[in-house]
Dynein 2 heavy chain 1 cytoplasmic ATPase lid domain-containing protein
Amino acid sequence: IYLAITDWWFRRSRAADDVRMKGNALVKATIQIYNTIREQLLPTPAKSHYTYNMRDISKVFQGIQMLGVPLSDPKQLVRLWAHETLRVFHDRLINDDDRLWFCDYLKQMVDTTMGLKFDKVFEDYGDGSGT
């Protein structure tokens, strides 16, 4: 169902063809992140809010679809997708170990599922040092 929604949105928003071709990878990566985070970051008494459901996947796609301009570059789509997955999943995490694990996993997903290299997608953002 997410693929159908994504395809519809790409057509409606007049996204470039090479962006549209990332739709399947986008859905696959989002579902894989959802499944992995549910398995790896389980709720504990200190992390009782580490509960995830299908609405979290929907939130990622709703956030992406709020973009009001057509996407012309697959890197733009991947940056937007990464932002939304960080917003939906990463923002809940309460310690540095969990946050680092998620960021490493997100990088891995971009490299393996999106057909792009994380370092190339985010090269305009420096080395991550904040300087």
Summary: The chain has one domain: 2-125. The domain at 2-125 is CATH 1.20.920.30 (Histone Acetyltransferase; Chain A). The longest helix spans residues 23-40.
